[in-house]
Amino acid sequence: MVEGRVTAAVLVIGDEILSGRTRDANSHYIAHYLLQIGIETREIRVVPDVEEEIVAALNALRSRYDYVFTTGGIGPTHDDITADAVAKAFGVGISEDPRALALLLERIKPEDLNAARRRMARIPDGAELVANPISKAPGFWIGNVVVMAGVPAVMQVMLDDVAPKLAHGVKILSETIDALGLPEGAYAAGLMDLAKAFPQLSIGSYPSLREGKFFNQIVLRGRDGDVLAAAAERTRAMLRGLD
């Protein structure tokens, strides 16, 4: 971990995302949430409900970033294989966790706790539970991997539970500057010069279409407020020179 910098990846698990049936709202939410507490999301991956692919992606990401947040695949059905894949990635066993079972029984009658529902109490050995006040079925945290539900509302309360326990980096500041109706090609060279002059900042140009016309914005991001302010002023001056 570089001083002041904490990194993360998001691993979205589920055939329904890759098929287009379900829109992935979780990765966007997680990335924005983490940004507010000084954690940079550096990579987002989507993998199918295939154990080997989950294990391979998880091992690649957890060795590269400070945290990995997964969503999806911890429900009661046969295709919910995330817990098993995580256990395999870490080389640990997996079994029914008494703590998780007790949580399920807060919401489900003992006579209704069938084999399928009990699957949600299977937790890799050594993992800590992640609270789920909505439906009680917990997520879990093992090593630097936080495993959460795919249902957005449930994922969000799980993230709230783990956030205070995460290492927070220096918060990333940002400045957004409208490009005054100029096309990107008009300021691309000037923007490159700015990026060279301020290597400690992330500088990007982002076009959008509004009422049939391109509308461009330049976004500067960094941790040093004084450097960010200086770069923003130079950006505005550069744009004014192109009027």
TrEMBL record:
A Pfam short name: FLAD1_M
InterPro entries xrefs: CinA, FLAD1_M, MoaB/Mog-like_dom_sf, MoaB/Mog_dom
Domain of life: Bacteria
CDD domains xrefs: cinA
Domain MoaB/Mog: 9-169
UniProt xrefs under Gene3D superfamilies: MoaB/Mog-like domain
SMART domains: MoCF_biosynth
Name of the protein: Competence/damage-inducible protein A
Lineage: Bacteria, Pseudomonadati, Pseudomonadota, Alphaproteobacteria, Hyphomicrobiales
